[in-house]
């Protein structure tokens, strides 16, 4: 415990501990005990829980007084409920990291050599051998080296600053998330919501289903409390907690069922979670862990997902970490970009190497061979200087070629989006979720609270044999029924649920707690009764037994002891579930009468279905009396929850949010299917789905409930089959009465499906603890900020701070915007890259000197990388983004339109620059700048080239704002002030600083107005040329199709989808000329015959072979070898029944690949054919070969 001593060494803490009857160390020791040991320890040391409360100067019922000085004392003595975050990287560290970039290092070295050499005077320097430079210029030789260093510094500073602001934003986001988490605490006998960080030792916290415990504590009183402690102990079963058997509650664990009150005994670094964090070294340990921790440390109690207690067995901890941190595969966009950057980088490297080699060879051949000069030893430094210059040019080509701006653009774009999404009520927890959202093709949404307002109001009821369409006057009802009903509702609901008077004049009363219960309490108030006096009469401690609501029971029951002896149990829950358990019902007089099965059916038809068809949720209230002796076995739930007496059925309405129908229309327009997954009954769900516009009458859709869903997707063994799933999900729009597992199954089924040529990208909304698995499985999980439990938020990627469906649509818009911003930047960047590299390369080869100098290239690099990424990545989204279908996961980054633009503008720029380079001096009537000696002053000629080049880039940046071939590139340009300021700023710097005043370092000379006019005119030509390019239809440019595909290497495994119905014309089909097609057809005929023979041979084995060995698609997908079989109906000679129970074979024409299912035929010809069509493919590339449209296999399929 030395750690602890370090923490609290100051004397003041010791004094304050003296104020309380127990020290931090004692409490820490207590919290390390479990179960029975802890109970014994409390009894030995403190007598009982009240004794412990007295020592901590708190009251088990009223909590702390909330007096400020008292709270401060407690914080002094027992610490705060915070785990100190790791120190952020300093700006200097970030600069150091930015300097690690290889290209920059090469440049720095080159610049230093150049600097060193420029100061070296060869002995006998006046031999005149060094060409016609006068002293002044030789003196300024150092400038180039210095300028390179300066521009490197510039790039580094900008990168570091970006990283720093990103880190800062991320921390801001963290603290936002941490402040968001509030907890219910009793202070001064009032239940209040406190931020987790303000909880102190001695607080009485109210815990309920779905909470993530923020501190360690001891249970004072609990109802049916079950805790998931897997995050701390690795124990996956839920642990039952009771005040007398196992009262220890630990921070970071999840409440899975029930409710209760706990006394907080350890907070912050002294809680179990905190201790583990200090072991992991929240302060100083290795960087890697830190990063993971920042990502996971999502709430005050800290995410304990990463480390189980047994840290001693390091292996397990490591495993746990790995699995959790990579929650999703690398984001699609980043995957594509990294690949692209690497490809471009390689090309750049080759180009720069060639440039250097050509320059060096040319120099050597020219000087020593053609002019037959001897190698003078005293001139060596001069030659070396030339070589260094060539090297610098080569490196510069490389610098311009490598798009370091790509990662920067992604970061800026994502960071900017995340910041703006905050305003749209999306709190993004994982950056890449933002971009994944743009590709979403399906949204599985909850109904309650997301599509509806989550303000439940009772609007109809059935009581005393009468169906009231609106809430009746209490005078109409018999007093007996009324009393039972009011008692049943008031007692059998969480006491934390209340209806408070409206805060604003004329506003609606505030509903606190569970909304359905609020609806029922509202019914009590409408019946002119009050629930509070009844609750005061029987406070929560006096409730005899509580069966809390969970997704299995779908009902809640509370048992109370009657004053005259005996027990009464009140029950409420989903009407069809509770009514099944009723054997009696109260009549008009309030007396129970028999309730037969046929009465139930009639009730369902006459009462429940009509209510449900109006979109009402139906709740049934019932009760049952038990004798005092013998006392019933309360744990035997099935017997207890039976033979109930129905009191009434209430119809509760949850109106659709006004903005939802419009949002859903926008989703459907954007090519996103919205599905509703709800626990409500089918008719209610269908009615709400109609109102939202998820389904329209007369459409072909499926609306089914959980039972039917499972019946359709599971085989006889009860296993989910993908093939059955594929028959259900495409038309499924409403899934009612679904359990959390159904939701998870549906999401998994849609994601794993191979029906469409693109893998589906699924977003899911959830608020309950049980939605965790579905939220984690989905590509993007949305948790509800208001109604959501901590567990749901923990599993999610984005938190909707206003619980509103239309915020999801905003997220889609931002996601697509990120993708488009990156594409815009790419289009701009690649144009510059192509042009700069070609100019430097050809210029160097033809004129021995790159027309664009190193420093100029670096300036261009700065414009195009850093500034352009800022300008183009911060375009605000427009509604137009929602007018198109989502890009798939494997659509190439560079579309054919973009390729057209890149090539088009590249050609324009090259033509202009080469014209200027070779005939510029005649056009402008100036001295030629070509073939200038080593340190010659900058020429006007080259200045014009450089200036024109930069201006063309600037105007092309405006062109790059549109990537879908739109005409008006200025559309909405003033909505983006960053863009405007960057373009004007760059222009100003170019004019004033670089060209007019830049002088030697930038190799520029000032230009007069006429030349500036021409430069600007040539730059403006870009905009005109852009219009010309836009008129060329893509269809005319066939070759572009291939160009766009460059970036499409096989994506992550499992993303190649089976493109069976690929509409595009199959190039492979064309390339396999007619002759080949015929040859393949012949082969496939032979194959068919061989197969028949094999079938006969193997029918002997077929019977013996276990069919289930290939009953799953995955099994036979893993065979490394594919056999080609044609997709004609299987030959009846093969034993038919065998095919029937082999779902894999019925799947699709893809059963072509029925690998390894028959014994290898002795006929070796078979294999010869296989290898002839290159079918023995290794596993990794299997799906690519079997399905990509350009593979011979695919065309074969089509020709077959």
TrEMBL record:
Q: Which GO terms describe its molecular function?
A: ATP binding; ATP hydrolysis activity; calmodulin binding; metal ion binding; P-type calcium transporter activity; PDZ domain binding
- Keyword annotations from UniProtKB, A to Z: ATP-binding, Calcium, Calcium transport, Calmodulin-binding, Cell membrane, Ion transport, Magnesium, Membrane, Metal-binding, Nucleotide-binding, Phosphoprotein, Translocase, Transmembrane, Transmembrane helix, Transport
**Do you know which Pfam families this protein is assigned to?**
ATP_Ca_trans_C, Cation_ATPase, Cation_ATPase_C, Cation_ATPase_N, E1-E2_ATPase, Hydrolase_3
Q: Which reaction does it catalyse?
A: Ca(2+)(in) + ATP + H2O = Ca(2+)(out) + ADP + phosphate + H(+)
Offer one example of a GO biological process linked to this entry.
regulation of cytosolic calcium ion concentration
Group of enzyme by EC: translocase
Keyword Disulfide bond (UniProt): no
Instruction: Please verify whether the record's keywords include Translocase.
Output: yes
Question: Which EC numbers characterise this protein's activity in its record?
Answer: 7.2.2.10
Q: PANTHER family from the entry?
A: CATION TRANSPORTING ATPASE, PLASMA MEMBRANE CALCIUM-TRANSPORTING ATPASE 2
According to UniProt, the name of this protein is Calcium-transporting ATPase
Give the source species.
Esox lucius
Q: Name the lineage.
A: Eukaryota, Metazoa, Chordata, Craniata, Vertebrata
């Amino acid at each position: 415990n030395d750690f602890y001593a370090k923490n609290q060494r100051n004397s003041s803490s010791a004094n304050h501990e003296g104020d309380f009857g127990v020290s931090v160390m004692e409490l820490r020791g207590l919290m390390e005990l479990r179960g029975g040991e802890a109970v014994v320890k409390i009894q030995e040391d403190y007598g009982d829980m009240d004794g412990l409360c007295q020592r901590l100067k708190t009251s088990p019922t009223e909590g702390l007084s909330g007096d400020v000085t008292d709270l401060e004392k407690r914080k002094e003595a027992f610490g705060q409920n915070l785990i100190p975050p790791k120190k952020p990287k300093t700006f200097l560290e970030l600069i150091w990291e930015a300097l690690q970039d290889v290209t920059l290092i090469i440049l720095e070295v080159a610049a230093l050599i150049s600097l060193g050499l420029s100061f070296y005077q060869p002995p006998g320097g006046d031999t005149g051998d060094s060409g016609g430079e006068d002293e002044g210029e030789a003196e300024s030789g150092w400038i180039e080296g210095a300028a390179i260093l300066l521009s490197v510094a510039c790039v580094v500073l900008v990168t570091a600053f970006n990283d720093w602001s990103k880190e800062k934003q991320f921390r801001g986001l963290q603290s936002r998330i941490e402040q968001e988490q509030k907890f219910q605490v009793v202070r001064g006998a009032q239940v209040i919501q406190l931020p987790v960080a303000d909880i102190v030792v001695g607080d009485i916290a109210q815990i309920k289903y779905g909470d993530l415990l923020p501190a360690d504590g001891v249970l004072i009183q609990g109802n049916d409390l079950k805790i998931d402690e897997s995050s701390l102990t690795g124990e996956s079963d839920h642990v039952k907690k009771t005040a007398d058997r196992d009262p220890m509650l630990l921070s970071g664990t999840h409440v899975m069922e029930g409710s209760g009150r706990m006394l907080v005994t350890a907070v912050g670094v002294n809680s179990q979670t905190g201790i583990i964090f200090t072991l992991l070294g929240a302060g100083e340990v290795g960087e890697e862990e830190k990063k993971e921790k920042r990502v996971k440390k999502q709430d005050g109690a800290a995410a304990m997902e990463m480390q189980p207690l047994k840290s001693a067995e390091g292996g397990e901890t490591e495993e746990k970490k790995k699995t959790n941190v990579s929650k999703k595969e690398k984001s699609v966009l980043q995957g594509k970009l990294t690949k692209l950057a690497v490809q471009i980088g390689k090309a750049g490297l080759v180009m720069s190497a060639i440039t250097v080699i050509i320059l060096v060879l040319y120099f050597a051949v020219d000087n020593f061979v053609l002019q037959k000069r001897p190698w003078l030893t005293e001139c060596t430094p001069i030659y070396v200087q030339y070589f260094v210059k060539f090297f610098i040019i080569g490196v510069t080509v490389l610098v311009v070629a490598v798009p370091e701006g790509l990662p920067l653009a992604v970061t800026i774009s994502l960071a900017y989006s995340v910041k703006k999404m905050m305003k749209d009520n999306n709190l993004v927890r994982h950056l890449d979720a933002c971009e994944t959202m743009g590709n979403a093709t399906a949204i599985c949404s909850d109904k309650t609270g997301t599509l509806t307002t989550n303000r439940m109001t009772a609007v109809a009821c059935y009581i005393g044999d009468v169906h009231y369409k609106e809430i009746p006057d209490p005078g109409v009802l018999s007093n007996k029924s009324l009393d039972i009903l009011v008692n049943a509702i008031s007692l059998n609901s969480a006491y934390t649920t209340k209806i408070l008077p409206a805060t604003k004049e004329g506003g609606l009363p505030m509903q606190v707690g569970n909304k359905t219960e609020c609806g029922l309490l509202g019914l009590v108030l409408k019946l002119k009764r009050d629930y509070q006096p009844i609750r005061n009469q029987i406070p929560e401690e006096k409730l005899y037994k509580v069966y809390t609501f969970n997704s299995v029971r779908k009902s809640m029951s509370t048992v109370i002891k009657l004053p005259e002896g005996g027990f009464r149990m009140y029950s409420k829950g989903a009407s069809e579930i509770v009514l099944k358990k009723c054997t009696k019902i109260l009549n008009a007089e309030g007396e129970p009468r028999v309730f037969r099965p046929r009465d139930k059916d009639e009730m369902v038809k006459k009462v429940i279905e009509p209510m449900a068809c109006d979109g009402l949720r139906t709740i049934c209230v019932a009760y049952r009396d038990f004798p005092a002796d013998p006392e019933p076995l309360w744990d035997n739930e099935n017997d207890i929850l039976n033979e109930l007496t129905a009191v009434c059925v209430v119809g509760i309405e949850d109106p659709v949010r006004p903005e939802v129908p419009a949002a859903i229309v926008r989703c459907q327009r954007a090519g996103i299917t919205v599905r509703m997954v709800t626990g409500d009954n089918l008719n209610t769900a269908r009615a709400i789905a109609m109102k939202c516009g998820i389904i329209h009458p007369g459409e072909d859709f499926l609306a089914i409930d959980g039972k039917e869903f499972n019946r359709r997707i599971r085989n006889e063994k009860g296993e989910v089959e993908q093939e059955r799933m594929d028959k259900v999900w495409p038309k499924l729009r409403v899934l009612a009465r679904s359990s959390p597992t159904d939701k998870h199954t549906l999401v998994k089924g849609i994601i794993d499906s191979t029906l469409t040529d693109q893998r589906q990208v699924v977003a899911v909304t959830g608020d309950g603890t049980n939605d965790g698995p579905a939220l984690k499985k989905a590509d993007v999980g949305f948790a509800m900020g208001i109604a959501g439990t901590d567990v749901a938020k923990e599993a999610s990627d984005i938190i909707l701070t206003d619980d509103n469906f239309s915020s999801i649509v905003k997220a889609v818009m931002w996601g697509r915007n990120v993708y488009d911003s990156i594409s815009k930047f790419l289009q701009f960047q690649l144009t510059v890259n192509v042009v700069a590299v070609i100019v430097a390369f050809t210029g160097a080869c033809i004129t021995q000197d790159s027309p664009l100098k190193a420093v100029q290239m670096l300036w261009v690099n700065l414009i195009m990388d850093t500034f352009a990424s800022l300008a183009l990545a911060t375009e605000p989204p427009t509604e137009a983004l929602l007018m198109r279908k989502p890009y798939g996961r494997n659509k190439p980054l560079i579309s054919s339109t973009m390729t057209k633009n890149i090539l088009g503008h590249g050609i324009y720029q090259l033509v202009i620059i080469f014209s200027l380079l070779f005939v510029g001096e005649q056009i402008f009537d100036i001295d030629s700048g070509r073939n200038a000696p080593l340190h010659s002053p900058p020429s006007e000629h080259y200045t014009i080239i450089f200036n024109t080049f930069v201006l063309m880039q600037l105007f092309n940046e405006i062109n790059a704002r549109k990537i879908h071939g739109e005409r008006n590139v200025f559309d909405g340009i003033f909505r983006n002030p960053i863009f405007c300021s960057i373009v004007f700023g760059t222009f100003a710097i170019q004019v004033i600083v670089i060209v007019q005043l830049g002088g030697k370092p930038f190799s520029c000379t000032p230009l007069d107005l006429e030349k500036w006019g021409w430069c600007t005119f040539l730059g403006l030509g870009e905009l005109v040329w852009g219009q010309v390019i836009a008129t060329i239809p893509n269809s005319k440019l066939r070759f572009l199709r291939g160009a766009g595909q460059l970036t499409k290497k096989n994506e992550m495994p499992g993303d190649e989808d089976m493109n069976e119905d690929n509409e595009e014309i199959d190039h492979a089909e064309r390339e396999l000329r007619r002759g080949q097609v015929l040859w393949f057809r012949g082969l496939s005929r032979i194959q068919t015959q061989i197969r028949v023979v094999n079938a006969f041979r193997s029918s002997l084995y077929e019977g013996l072979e276990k069919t289930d060995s290939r009953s799953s698609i995955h099994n036979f997908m893993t065979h490394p070898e594919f056999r080609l079989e044609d997709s004609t109906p299987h030959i009846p000679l093969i034993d038919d029944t065998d095919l029937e129970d082999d779902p894999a074979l019925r799947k699709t024409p893809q059963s072509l690949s029925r690998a390894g299912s028959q014994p290898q035929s002795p006929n070796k010809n078979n294999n010869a054919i296989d290898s002839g069509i290159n079918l023995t493919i290794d596993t990794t590339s299997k799906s690519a070969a079997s399905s990509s449209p350009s593979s011979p296999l695919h065309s074969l399929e089509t020709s077959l």
